Each structure stands twice: as structure tokens, then as C-alpha cells.
Amino acid sequence: MKLTMGQALAKYLSVQLTEVDGKQVPLFGGVWAIFGHGNVAGLGEALQHHKETLPTLRAHNEQGMAHAAIAYAKAHHRRRMMACTTSIGPGATNMVTAAATAHTNRLPVLLLPGDTFASRFPDPVLQQVEDFAGPTVTANDCFRPVSRYWDRIVRAEQLLTSLPAALRVLTDPAECGPVTLALPQDTQVEAFDYPDDFFAPRVHRLRRARPDAAELGAAAEALRAAKRPYVVTGGGTLYSFATDALDALARTHQLPVAETQAGKGALSWDHPLQLGSLGVTGSSAANALAAEADVVLCVGTRLSDFTSASRTMFPKAKLVGLNVAAFDAHKHGALPLVGDARETLEELSKALSGWKAPDAWAARAKEEVSKWNVAVETATRAATDGSVPSDAQVLGAVNRASRPQDIVVCAAGGLPGELHKLWRTRKPGGYHVEYGYSCMGYELAGGLGVKLARPDAEVFVMLGDGSYLMMNSEIATAVAMNKKLTIVLLDNRGFGCIHRLQQATVGEEHNNVLGGPAVDFVLHARALGAKAEKVDGLAALPAALDRAAAAKETTVLVIETDRKKSTDAGGTWWDVPVAEVSPSAKTRAAREKYVEARKAQKLVR
Predict the structure, then answer these.
(1) Helix axes 541-550, 391-401, angle to 10 degrees
(2) Burial class of residue 532 (count of CB atoms within 10 Å of its CB; 0-12, 13-18, 19+)
(3) Residue pLDDT, tens place only, 486-525
(4) How confident is the model at residue 605 (pLDDT cuts 50, 70, 90)?
(5) What would the pLDDT profile of 392-431 be if each residue is shown by its tens digit?
(6) Structural class in CATH, domain 2-204
(7) Distances (CA, A) of 119 to 93, 186, 368
């Protein structure tokens, strides 16, 4: 059939399918589009002919819409995804930050920025970035290092090879991440006779790679020899739908389990073998047992510095890296166990038949968890003196107001650390915190993406004033789309988290506290179409949350918090370099502590 490149692209995307809960549904939930001269006449013309099977969604910021697309994919555990199209200049480069977010978090999103003319006849065109030494270079080359797959479609027929390659990456458990196809605006409107069978519907199913027998045997042997075994669960457990397999492994073999940020919620907070969060933002229970563990099974985790406490978390342990990606399975000198999390956990449990961890180790875990639960209750309990609340006290009130099926969304600042420690997640998917790239501004757009994926859930977006001021325009998008969010804005008049880190490493206050008059966030949110109110202290928050729950519209609740307060319980060291020389006595003292702490790093196992 004779179609323009743009029409062929839209048609191809519209017939890609996936399986969710046993039903075939479109793989792409829609295409976010902010039109400009680089895509409106090409791909824009094509999208209007596929409104029923490939809806076009309009946002207010290109980074925001791409973050919404990423959140949508994460909320679907990577089974469904979205595409995003922009014009050629600032619209395209606005998405680079979102591409990095998706790349870091191993999440699929298809980015379709417009590009300059393949013919080069009218060069330089509006918004074109010219490279003096290379006419093939455009602004879209910025996407190369933050894309899993990148191509520039300069001939219409190139879609025949590039689109299947793009879909392979987007749906591959090991390679999954952002794909960028740069689309020159003249090529978008050029026609080609595409084969009919190119547009045959295709169902993309989750590939489940089984583990190598030798690797499985080595992992089982290591665990059988362990006296203090330990499991870390990451995002890969959720993306593999392996939570039941993890639960069975833990119960059958009496294995305590700790959670990364991406893996939080794989087991309910009150699961008998749940230790809570691990690492820099970890629970005292998880961190205490990690210090004693002799074998650690790492399931679907990147082992970031927050999880490993900058390689100080497991001083006595041999790691086993269970991961669908060999790149991650080999980290930290681990015994690699490459395979799908669900299939491998089930086979590993069979290989461990008849064995379980010592009763004394399980009892130790239970004892530490009991103490940690007291610490959580203390940190999240409302103060009675009327003082400005901490972040922990606010999130405690929100947590108590939420239902098991509801979802909390966050991304940056001090809140992710408090949420990782203190939020009690009851069901897989109930905790949605982007902390791989920790991108300020993700929260509100991410909340919209989650709501699109999970319309049945109340979505609580928790963020600080710093993130709100960085990107808030998608409140207007949520209002226009009638997608209700409950937004809890914690106002501490600045970048409170980095302010505290600055005090710990530099000892002096500089450039993190907001000066000038206070921002009226209530009026601002109302101007974007949301309902909004100022919450006068913690005692008034439960009633405000009840009003937000009853409302049909997006609601913003603004509450002042103390930027100096954070939860002392739990946590551990994080490698943030301190100046080797300084005129400040406070900085020199911090340097001495830093040098001493680095001695605990285990760079080779």
C-alpha cells in the first residue's frame, strides 16, 4: 500500500499488541504530541487517521509528556508503553532528560522527534543546530547516549528494518529502554509502496529466559552453604511478575528480603520475612542484617550506590546476581545467574528443596523488624506541640489515608528517602518512586502517566516546592484530560534535602534556601485549573485528604514542613566526596570523617 513514511509509522504502531491479564490489548496506549513545523504536517497528519487505535494526547511540556509516558510504562510493569513526538529544536531536546530517566530505569518509551530536511535544500531551517564540520549532525544526536536504540529515518523504506528493531528493544526484558527514531520533516511526507504484511497485527509476549544449569547449580550451592542468607529484591521482580515466586522462595526457605527503591512493594510491608528498605535510605532492620549476611541473592536490581551504600553494605557476603541482563548480573563480582526472575526463582527454589535458613537467623530478622516498626510509628506519628511537621509526619498521614490499591508517586529531594524507609506498601505497584535518575519535575507528569495506566487507583503525588517549581504544567494537562490526582505539596522554602547534605559535607549554607516572598502555591494551582487549599498544620491534614478523596477534580494540598527535620532511624553512609583542602574548619572536619568512611568500601569481592 502506498503510504507516506509518517502514515506507515502510525499504522505500524497501531497494530502492535501485547497481553495483559490474559487479554490482547494495544501495546501503545497512545502518542503524546506537541506539534511544530517539524512534525505537524507529516506524522501529525498521519496520527489523525488512527484516533481509535492510537490516541493522540496533548501535553504542555515535552519533557513532561515523555515522563508521563515513562510512568505509564512503569505502572504497566513494562507490558504497555507510549510514544512521544515533537518538533525539531527545543521540543526535541526537551525530551533528552526524559530519555535519560528511561535509560537509567530500564523503561520503554518511543521518542519520535522531528528533524531537519534529509534533502538539506532549505538548510539551515528554523531551529536547526548546525555542526560546522558535519552536516549530518543535528540536535537529535543528543539522544544517542541516552537511547538503547537510535536511528535517523532518511528514506521512507528504512522503516521496514528500523521499526521492527525498535520494537525488539522496547519489548526485550534485557535491553529494554528508550528508543529514538529521528524523523526528517521532508521524509515524513514522502510515500513508498509498503508491503501489506508489514502491517499485520503482532502480539508481543514477555520473553522468559531460563537460567543456565551450571549458573543455577552454583547459586544453589552458595545458598545451601550459607548461615546468614539474604535476598535483595529490585524492579526486575515486578517487571517479571515474579512477586508470587519471591514470596514462595522466602517462605519455603526462610529467607529475609530487603527492597530497593524500584523493588519496593514486591512483598507487603507486613510480610513475615520483609525487612523493609535497604541501603542509604534503608531500614535499621535491613541494614543490620546486611552487615552480617554471608550470601546475598540480588534479584532484578542494578545495585546502585544507594542500594549498596556505595559498596559498603555487604562487608562479609558473597553476592549472587539474578538478572535478565548479564550486564547487571555480574556487578560487584557476583556469581552471575542470568535469567527471567520468575522462572529462575521457581527453579532455584526447587534446587534448594529440603533446605532452609537457620531458625536463629529468621528469629534475628523478626526481632530487628519489630524494632524498626516502632521506629516507623515514632517517625510518622503526629506531633502534639503544634510544631511545623516533618516530611515523615506528612507522609504518614497520607499513607494512613490511602487504600491498598492506591499509588504514591515521587521522584526527588528528601521525600524519596523518607518514603523508601517509612511508606507501608500493601500491594505490588502501590509504590512508584523514580529514584534511578532522581529527576526533579518527574512527579506531576509521572502521576498523570500512572493515572492513565491505573484509572481505578487514587494517585497520590508527593513532592516538594523545588520540584513543583521546576515542572508543574502537567497539572493543566491532568485537569484538561479529567484525570484526577491528589497532589500533596510539602513547602519547606527551598531545596531542603540538598541543604541538609550541604551542612553535612560543607558545613556552610549556600544557595539552597529560597529567598524573597513566599510563593502562593494555592493560587498558582488554581490558575492551572486544579482545586487547591492551604493545610494549616498536620492536625488539619486528615480532613483535607478526605475532601480530596471525595473530589472529582485534581486537588493540590499545600502544607509547610521543616526542611531541617529528617528521620534519624535507619540509613547508612553514602559516598559524597568532600573537599580535600578548604579554608573552612567545618569542611576539613567533614573531610576527615569522609576519608575514614571510605575505608569500608569493598571494591573487589
Answers:
(1) 40
(2) buried
(3) 999 999 988 888 888 888 888 878 888 877 778 999 999 9
(4) low
(5) 999 999 999 999 999 999 999 999 999 999 999 999 999 9
(6) alpha beta
(7) 22, 8, 67
Q: Collect all residues with Cβ–Cβ distance below 8 Å to 82 and sequence separation of at least 6.
A: 28, 29, 30, 31, 32, 57, 68, 69, 72, 73, 109, 110, 449
pLDDT at position 236 over 80: yes
Cis link prior to 272 (omega < 30° from 0)? no
Burial status of residue 214 (CB atoms within 10 A of its CB: 0-12, 13-18, 19 or more):
exposed
Say how far apart CA 204 and CA 179 lie, in whole Å: 17
What is the residue extent of each domain of the chain? 2-204, 213-371, 381-560
- The rounded distance, in Å, linking the Cα atoms of 257 and 230 is 6
Nearest C-alpha neighbor of 276 from the set 108, 160, 424: 424
Per DSSP, the three-state class of 570 is: coil
- Kindly tell me the number of DSSP H helices and DSSP E strands found in the chain: 23, 23
**C-alpha cell recorded at residue 256:** 529475609
Q: Which residues contact 370 (CB under 8 A, 6 or more apart)?
A: none
Query: Quick check: 2 and 191 in contact, CB under 8 A?
Result: yes
How high is the mean pLDDT of the chain?
A: 96
37 grid coordinates: 513545523
Bridge pairing between strands 335-338 and 149-152: unpaired
Domain pair 2-204 / 213-371, same fold: yes
Helix axis angle, 62-75 to 96-105, nearest 10°: 20
| d(C-alpha 580, C-alpha 65), whole Å | 42
Q: CA 281 to CA 301: how far, in whole Å?
A: 16
Helix (H) or strand (E) holding 194: none
pTM: 0.97
Q: Is the pLDDT of residue 604 over 80?
A: no
Q: What is the pLDDT of residue 497?
A: 83
Which residue type, as a one-letter code, is found at position 599?
K
| CATH number of the 381-560 domain | 3.40.50.970
The phi, psi pair for 32, rounded to 5°, reads: -75, 135
Place of cell 573487589: 604
Q: Name the β-bridge partners of 203.
A: 17
How many other CB atoms are found less than 10 A from the CB of residue 368? Answer: 20
563 pLDDT above the threshold of 90: no
> What is the distance between the alpha carbons of residues 202 and 401, in angstroms, rounded to a whole number?
42
Backbone φ and ψ for 585, nearest 5 degrees, come out as: -65, -35
Q: DSSP code of 408?
A: E
The CA distances from residue 206 to 263, 340, 344, in Å, are 19, 10, 15
Residue type, 214: A
DSSP letters, 286-342, are: HHHHHHH-SEEEEES----HHHHTTTTS-TT-EEEEEESSHHHHTGGGPEEEES-HH
| Rounded Cα–Cα distance for residues 542 and 273 (Å) | 31
What whole-number distance in Å separates Cα of residue 461 and Cα of residue 470?
15
Q: Could you identify the residue written with the cell 496520527?
A: 47
**Contact yes or no for 254/357 (Cβ under 8 A):** yes
Q: With H, G, I as helix, E, B as strand and everything else as coil, classify residue 567.
A: coil
Q: 411 with 463: CB under 8 angstroms?
A: yes
Domain 213-371 has CATH 3.40.50.1220: yes
C-alpha cell at 598: 571510605
